[in-house]
Each structure stands twice: as C-alpha cells, then as structure tokens.
Fold each of these.
Amino acid sequence: MTRLAVRLALRGGRSGLVRVGLIAIALAAGSAMLIVGSWVLTAGVARTDRVETRRGGPLASVDMLLHRAQGVPLNSVTSGRPFVIWSKTSLSAPRARTITAFGIAPSGTDAPRPPGVRAIPKPGTALASPALRALVDSREGASLRAALPAPIVGTVGNELLRDPRELVVVTGYDIDTLQRIDPGAYLLESFHPRHTINSLLFVVPITVLATLVLLLPLLVFVGSAARVGARRREERLATMRLIGATPGQARLVAAVETGIAGIIGMAAGIALALATRAWLVAHRTYAPGELPTSGTRLLALALVVPLLSAISAPLALRRIGMSPLGVDTRRHRRSVSPWRWWLLALGWTLFVAGALLATRGDTGGWRTSASPLLLTGGVVGVALGLIGAGPWLVQQGAQLVERRAARPSSLLAAARLSEDPRAGFRPVTVLVVTVFVATMLLVLIPAARRSPTASQAWPWTQDVTARPDLQVTWNPIRADAALAVAAARDRLARVQGVEAIAPLHAGTLSPRTGDVPIPWPGTDGHVVVADCTTFAALVHGSSRDCRPGVLTAVASGYRAGDSLTLGPSLSLTVAGQLPLLDRAGVLALVPGSFAPPQLRDLHDVSTLWLRTDGSRATALRVQAAILAVAPGSTLEPGRTLQYRSIWITTTRWLLYTVLLVVLSLAACSLAVTVVDQIFDRRRSLATLRAVGTPLSLLRRATMLEVGAPLVAATVLGAVNGSVMGFVFTRLNGNSLAVPWLDVLALPVFIAAAWLAVSAIGLAALGRAAPPVPLRAT
Amino acid sequence: MNDGIIDAKGLVKDFGTTKALRGVTLTIRGGEMVAIAGPSGAGKSTLLYCLSGILQPDWGTVTFAGRRLETLGEADRAALRRREFGFVFQFGQLVSELRAVDNVALPLVIDGVRRVEATHRALDWLERLGAADVARETPDELSGGEVQRVAIARALVTGPRVVFADEPTGALDSIAGDEVMTVLTEHARAQGITLVVVTHEPRVAAYMHREIVVRDGTVASREAVR
Ligand SMILES: Nc1ncnc2c1ncn2[C@@H]1O[C@H](COP(=O)(O)OP(=O)(O)OP(=O)(O)O)[C@@H](O)[C@H]1O
Ligand SMILES: [Mg+2]
C-alpha cells in the first residue's frame, strides 16, 4: 500500500505537483529560518560572553581600588601569581564608528593572555582587529593611523572580538604608564571565559517559543496545502474502495506525499540556510566560526519541520469527511451554535478577576500569586475563545447579508459564507490570534520614538557624531571620579562646538543604603540629578516640570502630587512621569539646581552630559580633549536614560519581524485555501458564467468572500487585544503613550495582504472557470 | 432562409486535433422548437454552445435577430446570454450555496432588478412550474427532477427569446424526464419562446417540431415540421 501511496503521490497530476511544491517551499523556508535563527541566537550569546570575558572581573577592580586608596604597593594586593593590567577606552573612527581600545601591561613573560592574542604586544606597539587594519590601510582611514596609541604590528583573532566588523586595538604598555594614563585599569590574573547568559533560562525558552511561533502558522500552511485538490483525491480513493482500498489510506497517501515534500523541503532548507550563512560570512556580519555547520545539529533542526508537518497533513485531511461509499455530494448547511462564545466569556472573566485582584495592591498571600495566573489564563482563554467565536460571527453577518443583499456579488459571497461559516473562518484562524497577541503587545510595549534621540538608539548603530548629545562617563566605583570630572568639565567647556555641559549625579539606590525607602523590596532604584538644561534635554525639550522642590519621577505606584520620601529630611513631590521610561525601578530625575544637598551628596557626578552642535568635528575634538584630560572615561552617544528605550526598540523590532513572518505565512495559507476553494467550485462557477454572469461580478463576490472573514478576524483580534493591552499598561502603572499608529499599521498590512490574496484568487478564477459548462471529470 | 431568429453558416470548431464541427449551416425560426439529436461525441453540445454564444466558432457565423455574435465581446455576449437566452443543462447548473428561490432570482438581480421584486417573480415562476414547496431549499436537498424545474424557472424568469437545453433529462428516469419536458415545452409554447434542445433520446425529440441530426460534426438530416 505504501508503494501505491508513493505512486499516487508522485503521479497526483497537476494538483499533486502543486501540493508537493507548496509544502516543500514552506518547509524549506521554515527549516532555513529555524537553522539561521538558532545560529544567530547562539552567536549572540557567544558574543555577549566574549564581551564579558574581555571586560575582566569586577573583583579585580575592587582590589585595585583598595590598593590605590591605601597606598599599598601593587605586589601586595596580588597573590604573587602573574597578572596583567588591563584597561578599556574608546576612540572615534570615520563614519561615526567607535574603536574599542584596550591597553595591556603584563607582569612578566608568563602573564595571562587575553583570548585571541597570541603574544602580548611589546610596550609602544599595538595589535588591531582585521577590520581596523583594513580601515587604517584604506584612504578613508589613513588619518586614523596617527590617532592610534601605537603602530600596529599584528592582528588579534576573532576570539577577542564581538563581531568580525568590530574595530579593536590592543596596545602594549609598561605597568606604570598604563596605571598613570588609566587609573581605572583592572588587575587581572586570568581571563576566565564568562557565561553571563543562562542558557537554561534564556536560550532554551526563547528557542522553544520561537519554534512554536514559527511552527504554528507553518503547520497551518502545510495543512491547507495538503488539502489542495483533496476532494478530487477523495473521489479517486472512493473509486479505489471498490477494488479493495480502505478509507485510512487517504491519510497514508497524504502522509507519504507530505513526507516526500518534507525531504525535498528539508534539503532545500539546509541549502538555503547554508547560502544565507555564506552571505552573512561574506558580508562579515558573522565570523565563520560563529555559525557552526555541524551535521547533526543542522539535520536535527531541519528534521523538526518536515516531521511535524507529515503528522499535521493527514490531520488536516480528517476534517474533510471521508465517506467509504464515495464522495457525499449532498452538502448541508452547517450552522454554528452561539455556545461558541463561552470560552471567550470565560477568558474575559478570568482576566477581569485577575486585574481586579492586581489593583487591590500588594495584599500578599494567595492573591499576589493568583492574579498573574488568572491574567495568563484570561489571555489564553480569550485567544482560544476568538477562534471559537469567529465562525459564529461570520455566520450571523453572512445570514443577515444573505437575506438583505441587494447586489448579486454580496448575495453570492454571503450565501457561501453562511453555508459553511467554519470553512470560511478557518483560513483566518492564525490571523485572529496573531492580531490579538500583536495588538496587545503593541499597546504594551510603549513607543520609544517619542524621544527624538531614543529613536536612533538602535543597539547596533552607535552613531556618535550624528547626535547632538554626547556623554562622558567614569567608572562609578572610581575613588577619584569627582576630581577627574571637575578637571574634564573645565577642559571640555572650552572645546569648540560644545554648547552646554551638564553634570549628572547618577547612581544606584539600593535598600542597603538604609536611608532611602524603596517601594519594592529587592529592587534597585536609579537616581539622576541634573540641572534644568539637562533636564530639558532628557525630557526631550520640555522644561515644564523644572521647578523648585519638584521631583519628576518615574516611580510605579506613584502619581502626580504624591510625595516621595528619600531620607529623614528629604521628601519631594512627584510632578509626573517621564514619557520615555517605563517601570525601571525607581527613577527620580531632579532639577539639579534645586536638588537638596542630601540628594546631591548621595552620589558623585559620574557623568557629564554634553550638548554639542552635532558635527563630527566636534565629536573628534571632544574625543581628543578627554583622551588628554580624562583617560579612562568613556565617550558615548548621550543615552544614560535610554537603556530602556533600547530594550523597547529592540523588542519592538523583534516583534515586527516575527509578525511579518507569521502574517506572511498566514496570507500564504489564505491564498492557497482561496485558490483551492475556487477550483473546487469551478463547475458551478463555469455554469454561472455560461448563463451570462459577468466575470467582474464573480470577482467582486470572491473579494467579498475573502475579505469578510478577514475583517471579522482583524476587528475581533484588534479590539480584544488592545483592550487587554490597555488594561495591562494601567496595571503596570504605566502612563506611556500607546503607539496607535503602529497598531493601525496592522490593519493596513492585513488590507494589503487581502488585496494580494484576492488578486491571486481572481487570477485563479479566470483560469478555473471559463464561460463553458465543464464536462465531467 | 433569412426569416430565422438564429442563423448559422458554415460553423467549424476544432479542439486541438478533434474536429467537433465541420461546417454546420442551419436556421431556426422564431417560436420554433428544435431537437438536436445524434450519437455521443457527434458535436451536439459544441453546436449548442456556438449557437448560444458560449463558444466562439473557429470559422463561420452565427446571427441572432440580425446581430452577428462573433462581432460581440465576451461581456456583450454574456449580457446577451443573460437577457435574451435561457439555459438548462444536464447537471451542476445551480449555485449550491443559494436557496432555490435565490438561484431563480439571481439573473434578475444581476440585471439590476430589486431583490424583493426579483424574489417575487422567482416565486411566481417556481409556482407555475410546480416547485413552490422547494423554494427555500438548497440544490443539494433537491431531487433531480426538482433541480431541473428550478433550472427551467431560472431560464424563463428573465423572459428570454430563446431557451437552450443540453440533455435536460439526461440525469432523470423516464417519468421525471417526461414531466420536465412537458413543463418546458408548455411554457415555451405559451410564451412564444424558441426552444433548442440537445438530446439523444427519441422520446425527448418527439416533443419538438423538428429534429436536426448531427453526425461527425455535420448535419446529417433534417426532419420537416410535424
Ligand atoms: N473542451 C473540449 N476540449 C477538447 N475536446 C472537446 C471539448 N469539447 C468537446 N470536445 C470534443 O469534441 C467532440 C464533440 O463533443 P460534444 O461534447 O459536442 O459531443 P456531444 O455530441 O455533445 O456528445 P454527448 O452526447 O456525449 O454529450 C468530442 O469528440 C469531444 O471529445
Ligand atoms: Mg453533449
């Protein structure tokens, strides 16, 4: 029988070829995405680890502080083992790139070597990353040669680099010189490989989640592709029944067919992934070693998709009833009961209950733990409830239109939808859940772009010169930071192009300091004290709240007018919440000139915020100045307060990517189903045309028929999703602006997909239904 | 021979290497009831499709009431088929999602008649054809004879000048077939409608005024008016 199934699959005629082709393409794309995604994820984790490793241990720097503060000789703080002094600064390079400049001074020939450095460079020489060497050799970077701390004599390996494009220079010094030019340098006895990202807590859940997110729409697509021409195949099998075939064999044929498609798709997927890898390596986005081509892993990943789809395809077929007595030509109106709403109602009940519990405040005990459970249950319940309620909604709408329709196109579309509303809604099932989850997340993840600087704060484009704001930061645990800042401030004020300098008293408040009550035990707070100039810069141009005695705070649980106690004699009024930030512990932004001395004393100034004219020349001058007076400090785009927005931007970007993939897959499933349904009905459509029905009318009917469930799915998903997202933001005490524009972009995308799918459907219509009564097949 | 409502001259139609029509010339007068008979594969259906403007012949001309069909575009021919002609086929001719009454009303609605009015006229025709009690059912719930009655109602509801039928009784037993032919010819006669019926059953041809026998794509014989 399997042989027969293989033969049937291979000789399935044109519809069989279409099926195998569609499934293979989807599986190829799916497994390629999985493989490349896993590469990128692993490489990302390894990059973070490399950056952490080369940073050295924080303990070492504490030892250094002790040594300097107490004036003890360097040797007495070491254990007698060989060590290096290791420092990190940065330099600007053309096109607003940054060079990471490491300094290294070994205790002797047996000193530990950083990864990727075969021999520690002698004092007065430097090693450079391949990208930096190429840049220095180019015409554009020629001037950089003089700006580097020492001539380049060798290359550092990829083990030290975050990515192959990174510009890195490692300069050799003797110990005294390096300590003098960078008092913040570390003492390291070894470069321990560090693993900062817990793969069990991070990599595994993300992989599982991403696989699920990708697989669900993919399997739906495979399912709809497997149904292409299923009716015809059933007819064939029904005939075969007479000569001894069993009904279960239809499923076997489908499984074999998907299996064949799976093997083709898997091979194509691996090829596609390897091609992508070659492209990424050629463009030096990744080093070859970062994307390992180990056979077992590739195969395992590539197998997941076809295996699951081989199981899913016959399941999809089950839904088309297979009668052993041949194909049941009598179809009946399948009405949908209103009971389909109960799951949605249950979901909302759970959600509202959870929300009510949450607003009661921290009462502790079972309520605190029950609330997230109820909320999660509510979200899942509503998602499933939408799938249940969709067909009912389609049925009601269609029946109403069918009774009233004045136009023949809407009459035809409505009749078709009300005849089998489940079939009408099935192709948009993925869509309704996607729209629901997406709107909820879109509302939840606040818009970072309200801040003009934050909008550019992509983690991978550190565009120093394109921004008017720069910041110079010192290591917060430096003993002499205050002195260094004072010196740097005077020097930087004289740099041409620097318009304003604002010192920020910034630091972490933790419950351990004792005098600062933090609303959430265990959460660190972050306080920034700034003057009105900075304040205006930070709160993007608004100095509205810069008033004496007023604390502008982002503090979850506090509202405007509340007072926040920061010490025995220090309590301030909360003016409002910063639009840029969401709950990031306690963050208080205090106009510096009015800041009470207690607060100012709490932290030294560790950051200078510079407002410049934004030119590259100014950035280079600032860089020269700080290298002269403040070595060891870091010059960066002004972004003290933007770390949240980077997170937000990255998350949104990820969300959009995932959305695009899922929605495109959903659109493909829809297209396949629409075309198949048209071919299924070609006899009746052809007869309609023969008796004089204009093609344009059938086209309008098709568009309506595809569009109505889409609209239902979009509205259902978007309304439920945005209400839930909105409630969630309220619960988080978050008054951030909801990015309604992005939320609106979703229906626009769906409308575009509708047009595309309809266009494919219309093309199929013209081919499937010539205006001649079709002869029996 | 110019007094015909339909005039066909030298019709030739090939499907690839198959020569379905090899030069058919015939005239059908207004109000006449004509049977097109002949063995299977002779080209009867092809001839019917050419006469009604469903297919374009490769060669030859078809004139309907003085209008040359080959000069019309597909949209105009569709409008002609909708307004001037009615069709009854062997099977698969009703829209399976629409109730019987909506199937009958559809051509009127397409031509811009108000829904209420169209439904009213459709019900009227279903009643005349004795199919009023199945008006609210969908085609899948009907018997073969009922489907043909609904189809005849749909063919007649627009007040056509010619009704073309291709094996209208092909899927029915002889009793149901006789009933269907009786209603069809009765109403055609009453309305003065020209009737062209393709059949290979002599019993069906006997209802007509005249029989044209097609064999191998040509007209083999013409029987005089009875
Ligand atoms: N669309 C088509 N494509 C290819 N060949 C066709 C097509 N339509 C008809 N033919 C061929 O043209 C010839 C005449 O077909 P037609 O359907 O007109 O015969 P018929 O007399 O109606 O036969 P029957 O009594 O079996 O219905 C046949 O040989 C048939 O195979
Ligand atoms: Mg025929």
Amino acid sequence: MKLLYYELRKLLSKPVFLLLVLFTAAVLWVRFFMNCDQLDYVDRAMYRAVKKEMEALPAEEALLRLQRDRDGLMLLSFQKIYGETEEGQELFRRQFSGIAERYGMSLADFLSEYDAYAADDEERQKLQSVFNTLGEQYNYRESYHEFITDLPERAEELSSISVFSHAGSFSYRSIQKSLRDYLSLGEPEIRPDYDQGVKAVGLDYNSILFVFVLTLGAAVILFSEEEENGLRKLLFTTAKGRAELAAVKWGALLFFSAVFVFFLYGGEILIAGVRLGFGDLSRSIQSVSDFRDCVYQLSVGGYLIMSILLPMTAALIFASLTAFLFIFLKKPWLAAGTAAVFIGGNYLFYRFLTENGGLNALKFVNLFGLSDVYARFSVYCNINFFGFPVSVLPTVLAAGAVLLIAGGLFGVLCFSKGIGLNESSAFRLRRKIRIHGSVRIFVQENYRLYIGAFGVLVIGILLILGYRKTERGERLLSNADYLYYTYGQEIAGEITDETSAWIVKKQEELSLEASGGTAEDAELTDEERMEALFAAQVKSREIEEKQRVLMRIQEELLLLETARSKGIPVHYISKIQTDPIYNNGNAYLFSALLVFLILCFTLCPMFSQDEESGMGRLVRTVKFGRNRIFFTRYLVMLLFYTGAFLLFFFPYPINVLKTYRMTDWEAPLQSVIRYVHTEGNMTLRGFLVLWILGTYVSGTGFVFLMAFLSGACRKNSTTMIVSAVIIAADFLVNLIGFPVMSSLALSSGFGVTEILARSGRTWVIPIILLKNAGITAAVMLLHRRVFTK
Amino acid sequence: MKSFKMTVFCMLIILVLSIASCNRKPRRSTASENDTEDFNVTEFSSLSSRFPVIATEEGLYYILKSFLYYADLKTQKTYPLCFKLGCRHEEEDNMLNCDAYVGMNLNGDGNFLGQYKGKLYLCAVDHEEAEMRNQLVSMEMDGSARKILIKNMNGIDSGTMLFHRGFLYYITNAQKESGEFAQQIRRIPIDQIDQIDEKSEVLVSIARKEKHFDSGIPFLPLKDKLYYTEEYYGEDMLGDFYCYDLSSGEEHLLAESQLLLISGAVGDHLILLKSDGYNVQHLEYSPESADFSEATWLNKLHEQHPEWACQASCINEDFALMFTAEIDGDTVVSVDTDLKVVDTHGNLLCEIKDEAKPWTSPQIKTIKGEKYLVMFGPDYVGDTTVELYKVSDLLQGKAEPQRIQRK
C-alpha cells in the first residue's frame, strides 16, 4: 500500500498537472453547457403539468387532445402573423378554416377556445412546444408497438428479396440476427417523460480525447520521473520487488484514468441533469425515441451509468496499453509518441470508416467507438466478421478486456524481467557522428536548437508541410461556382447603379433566351418551331443554372447595399475569391496548433536542458552575463520562429492571393459579404496586413511562453507536457467560439477572421494585436526577471 | 538527454518520411488488359437528365428521389437497398443511418451508378457527416461493405461518369495553375479510383473562358476512341467535333464550326444531331471510313411526321424512340406524353402512350439473355414504378410493360 501511496502522491503533488485537469474539465463542461443550449427548449414545469393531465386520460383521447391543442395554439400564432387587417384575416380564414373543420367547428369558434392564450405570446409558445413534444412522444409510443409487432413480417419480407436472400451472405445473416436481437428484448413499456437531458448525454465522443491526453500526461509523470532523476537503476536493484512496483504503477495509472472519466463525464451528466433533466430514471431507454433501435434491456438510469462506464472502459484499456508501452519501450517520449499514434489511428478509423464497410470491425472495436455511448445504444448495427454479423458492444468489450489484462500482465512481466527495447546500432552510430558546439553564446545556442534539439529537422518538416499546403496545380470548381465566378468578374469593382442595371439586363437576356426568341417566332414554320423546342430543351438547364447564380449574386448585392446606404463605397468581389482568405473557418487555427505542437519538441529544452542537468546554476554564476545569455536565447528562438513562420504560415495568404487573383485590395472590408455589417473603416489590404502581423505576434507569444515554461518547469518532459497542454487549451478556447473568450486567448491572432465576423467591429483587431503584443512582452520580462535574479 | 534526443530524432524522421511518402509522382494510368467491356452506348442520352440503371439476372438497381432502389424480378416489387430491419428508409427519419440513402446529388446534372466486377459504384452523400458532401462509394450488390473511394467530389460532374474498358471517365471543372478555367475529360483505372488525385489522367482540356461543353454527357467512348463536342460559348451555338485516340493520345478534328451533338451509336456508327439552334438534322459518322452521312431513316421519319419531335432519345440497332409533341395552333403544348417506337427503316412499330417518362432516359438492358427497354412509369413522381418492355414485343408492335412497383 505504501508503494501505491507514493505513486499516487507523485501525481497529486503536481499542482500544475492538477490545474490542467481542472482547466480541461472546465473547458469540457463549458462546451457541454453550450451544446445543451442548442437543444429545443421545453419548459419542464409546464411539461409535467400537461403530462399529468394527459395521463389521466385514455391514451387515444390524450393523443387527440394533444393534437387539437397543438393545432389551436398554432392557429393563434398564425392569426397574429397574418395581421389584423381585414384582408389578412380573410386570407387566414381561407387558408386555415380546414383545420378547424377537422374538429367539426368553425374557425372562430375553435379559436375562441384558446382565447386565454392569445395575449401572452411567450407563454403560448412554451405551451406549444410542450404539446409538440408530448404529441411526438405519444405518437412514438403508438408507433413503437407497431414497429415491434411488424418485425417478423418485415424480416420475412426482407429475406425474400433476391439480393438479400442468399443464405450465406452478410445481409441475410444480418436480417436474421436483427430479428433475434429485437425479439429477445420483448416489448419494453414505453413511458413518455421529459427526455432532453438523456438526448444530450453521450453525444460527443471526442471528449474521450481529453481523458487520453491527461492519462498520457499521468503516465509520463508516473513512469519517467525515476528515469529523469536517475533512480531507475536503483529501482531495479531489488529483483523481487519489481513485479509489485510495476503492478502498482499500472494500477495507479488505471486508477487516475478512471478518476478522470468519472470527473469529466460525471460533471457533464450533472450539468445535463440540472440544466435539462432526465425524467423518470426507471423507464426503459426505448422510451426515448432516439433509442428505438436499442436492443438492450436498459433503463434511462442504466444508460446514464453506461455513459460513464463505457468511456471509463476505453480509458482503462488505453491506460493499460500506455503503461505497457512505457515499460517496454523504456524511453518516455517514444512510448508517449507511440501511444499518441495509437490514439490517432483509432480516431481515424472511427471517423473515416463507414458503419457498413467491410472493415467496420476496425470502426467499432475502437476506443472512440467504445466511448461513443449515444451511437452504441441508439443505432443498431453489427460488425461484419468475415460475412457473419457480430454484436458490437459485447465484441468491443471482450476485445477491450483482453487488451486491458494483456497490457497489465505483459507490462509487469517486462518490468520484472527487464525486457524491453534495447539501444539499436543506429543509436550507437549516432554517437559517433558528432557536430561540435562552440564557446560563443550565439553559436552555441543555435547549435543547441538546430542540432541538439533537431531544429533543422523541424524546419525541414515545416518546409514540406508548407510546400504541400500551396496549391500548385489546378482547383476543381462546380459548374455553378464557375458561372458565379465569371459573372462576378463582369461586375467586379465598386458597386454603382450600373451594377444593378447589369443584373436586370442579364436577367432579361436569360428570359429572352429561355423563351426561345419570341420575336422570331411569328416567322417560323411549324417544323422550325419544333426544332426550336429541342434547342430550348438543351439550353433550359443551363439557363436555370444561370438564373440561380444570378439570384445568388443579387442576394449578395442586396446585402452589400446595406453598407452602401451608410455611405461605404463597397465593391463587389465574388465569394470564391474572398472565402479562402476571410472565411476559412478554423482551418488556419488547426494548422497553427499543429505547428506549435511540433515546435514544442524543439523549443522546450532551450532553458530546461540546463536546469535539468544543473548547468543552469553554473551559467548564472556570471552575474553580468545573465542578460546576454537570456537575450541571445530569445533571439535564437525568435529567429527560428520567424523562419518557421515564413515557411509555414506566410505561404498560406500568399498562395491564396496568387490562386484566387484578388486585385481589389483598396476596397472597404465591408465588401466581403460576411463583414457587410461590420462597423469601422478598414480596407481589405489593411485587414490582411493586420492579420499577418497578428499571427506573427501571437506565435511569438507562444514561443516566449514555451521559453518561460522551459525555465519554470526545469524538466524537459514537464515543459513539453505543460506547454503542449497550455497551447492546446488556448487554441481550444478560441475554437469554442465565445467572442470574448476567443479574443482573450493568445491564439486569437490566428482567428481574427472569425472574431471579426462575430464581433462586427474593426477596432477589435488592433486591440487584439496590442493585447497579444503586451502578453508576449510581459512573459518575456517576467522570465528575464526570474532568470537574472 | 541523449536518449531523449534520439527519440525525438527518430520520431521526426518517421514524420518526414511519412509526409514525403504521400507525395508520389503520378504515373500514366493503365487498366487491366482483361477489362475490355465497352460502355453500353444504349445507356447514353444526349438529354442531361440521366437515370442510371444497373441490371442483373435477379433485378435492377436505380437511384430515385435520394434513395438507391432495387427492383426485384422475383418478388416483382421495388425496395430501398437497405437490409436494416428497423430502418424506415424515410427522409424524415435519421436518413444517414439508412444504407439506401444517397441524398441529393450536388455534383452535376445527373447521378452515377455503375457496376464493375460484382460491385456497385455510386455517388452518395457523406453518411458520417451532417454536411451534404457527395462521395463516390463502392459496395457489394446487397448494399453491404460500403467503401468510400472519393471523399469529396467537388468539381467532378458525377452525371458524366461512365465505365469503359476498365476506366472511369468523367468531366471536371478545373482552375488551372495559370488561373484560367478549363473543363477536362479525365479517366482513371477503376481499381485505382481511391487514388484519383494522383492517378487521374487528363485526356482533353478546354479553356472555359470562351467555350464550354453542353450539358449532359458531351462525350462518348466507342472502342478505342473518344468522341466529343466542344461547343462555342455564345449565341451561335456552333462547335467543333473531335475524336481522341485512347491508345495513342492523339486528337483529331473531325468537323469544325458546326454543332454536332452526340445522340447515340448504332453498331460502329455514331448518331449525331446537327443543330444550329433551330434546324436539326441527324447524321451518321462512320469511324472506319471517317465519313459523315445523312441518317436517312431518322431524317425520313422526321420529314414524314413533323409533329414528332426531332430527338431520338434511345437509339440502338433494333429501333429508336421518338418523342411526340402536341401542337395547338402556333403553340407547342408539350413534348413528353407519348413515345413512338420506330425501326431502322423508319417504320412506326408501336406507341408507348401517355405512360413513358422520357426524361428518365429509357435504356436497353439485357436480363437473362432477353433485351428489355427499361423506363420509369406513370407513378414515378408519387412513387417508384419500373417498367420493362421486352424489345422482341416492341418489334412485334406490342407495348405492354411488366411493372415493378414499390412495396
């Protein structure tokens, strides 16, 4: 137990790590809270009151009543929309009296029953959504009975179709197995209840990624501390204690991963419960319409428990395998890298393999597949195992159990027997080839960065990535986009009255073309007219397409007109040209995140390497040289980053400019459709310059932050974990999309296009730039103060 | 620190190699020598609306209203090609879970459905993403083992796709490096479709600024030649007619400054529509003698019956289908109510009255050695009905279809 206590203490005594866990939880919970908001709002108290009333009625009567009340409230809403004029009300009567007639009443009499709800629009809408929800649930209850009753007949019919009737085929076996699975369930009682919370839980399988990252961080701390302290050899001196120690380390990692899941997912369930509510937990999960196809006897409460247990199982499997990797590969970073590749592979298989594909086993027997609780219980499907359908959940749990136990057993075995990866001849060869450093500080720091920390390779990688990002060849455009682009070129430039005239003229031309030239018709013979008809047929689709494109341009011009009416001389520029620069979504953010995670490898050891080896104290003995060393290191890092920026980030806007042939740079920013309502004066060129500058400053901030953390954490491994997590978290905050939070993030420089679209104010951009510059300078000054003290 | 450096070094090397390995140089595409199956020219229609149909001994596959259907000859019913017992195959339902759901086609005028080596190939929306994006997928004939071959079909006109001698031929709208736009006829070996970015071969490229292809399939592969019309973009409706030699890669101008639209093929001869917007004439082109001649049987028919619309929608060695037009005084009321079946001597064989839907591209399919004319019946708008007319019956003047209705 003592061993376990010490292993647990290793993590619990790391406040930075605990803070990271809290921060991750906060980010996940905020994201979940926002997702909850996106669900249709149904007033819970009102729902319960109406439900109670309906439960007192026989089912059929309740259904009719719900439909009637829903129609009544809907008609009241429509009546308001049609206005109070006699003409509007007449139109309303003509269109909707049929609905009232269904209930054997005139429209006026029918509406008079709902007079009480006429005044309060908000209350009426709430009640309407309650009637809608309850109506759907009651209908679902009826349809579920039919669904289960009809299954044998449906199965027989499907099996009789020639293409599904081959006894040895996957489709035939799948139909038979589906029938057995559904029938084994019996017919669970469907009890309608408030279910918004149930629908929200377990939807986002990506959340498990955060658990994996935290588990990886915990593994680095649990397994690499002895390595970095030089205590590893000491641990191996007592042969009999090795197995116990390995088992304890393995157990500690599994314990932490389980706690992470419980903490993160438990929080989400709590939020869903408080914010949305689950209704009666004892009712069958099939009572929630989303889970009609669930073939497990499970209650709603059981589903909520499974929404923690399944991700927890995935986390335990990952933790067990990670522990094995750390023991077997011995090198913490090789193990962490392998585990990261394993996660990436799992994600890619889950994301890109199809549910019905031949390789669907890889999609389901997968850590993300196991964590996707909503899909596992709401969608019925089978694994295609050499033509045999196999249930997903039992298979993945069985495979997981094997991996879990195997990871533990092999881990303990390798640790106690000292089995693992040995230094290869390549490593020994590397030792012989040495490039020597220098006593000059600038040269030595460059040596440390480019040779010691493989900066040259990183530059190489960025060069390849940057080159691959450039569009060197052709770009494929749909017919509609091509037409849109060419039309856009015809009216490119400042919008004037002539622009509108061009649209009208073009539409007239198209109308004339569509009618086949009526002016000439009188002179045509019957035969010629017939032939003309053929020509019109051939052309008609093309004309329709042109008309659709013209309409699209017209809608854009209408939007631009709002800016023009404010006196802004907006230009027309097609979205094909502007979107890649100003509407690139989060693509640029993701690219930047990838680059900074790569840079972590190289930049993080700049200060921690000396601190870890104890050289830091020696270096600081020369009091007047501290500043020189400090600024030289910063200069070297900055130059390195500048190179990386030019190689990777800069080609993007340049490439876009070249490919999309933007020429209208002096046009106001409002010429871009998504910025049409933006306040403030700025040209497209001005915005682009600020954007490039903003990305550079943001990036510099991250580089300085890595330097600061490198000095503060004093260990390479800790620096890299902390830097990577902080950088990822910062980008995540930006990606979540809260305007204020996004603006506060250091990565805001990379996302100004999105921030500008959301905030609608141009002054936000220079403020973000100044804020990021301020943070960057503050980090550097703080670090300098600490370093030179 | 040394071990750390080594680890990082190894990881970076692996990363560089993996990135570099993705950037292979494209090679000239080749198909297996055994793939000699020609494109079935009777499936070709110069009309832009294509309703691709695949026929097997047991039934027919086709795409209608966002779903892939299977018309079973055994049960005489039509079903969505989805064997999920609980699936309702309805758009209102969670349709992305339905295996038969192909969604709206966003890439061109028509959809694509092909069969090759016992597998179905079709264009469908991404089932894993809510966003509507078309993909090219392959699957077993029972709809299982769905595999994504082209992740994003942007710029690829799926309505122009066809299989010919082991290759997939299609048209793209591409912006070239110079910034100019061009429409391109390309091809890729069928078994390498999943590497379309690296392995596709541009056969013909036409700058779009001045010219464009007509809608529909503007090219037709016939044996080792590819025929296509390059139409001038403008009022004159003129164009050039070319032949591209698929084995040598040479291009030959066959006719210039006249609009010749490919209408179909009878045996080795191409049937062309010569049009300048109002005057239409049928021509035959013989690749062997490289001669254009008047398609007298069609033109004669046209002269005899001017009320019959000018275009033959389905031409084969046995007969041609002609549209009928209804004229009220000076006004042409409609053209799509009846079809006339005429033989190659210009004789009217029978009429398919008020039931055919010509825009659904009637096609000749061979099922168990028997030739059928496949069409979609009168219920097509409300529901799905496949109509099969035996060609032997049509030639004997009988137009009584076998109807396969939606279950």
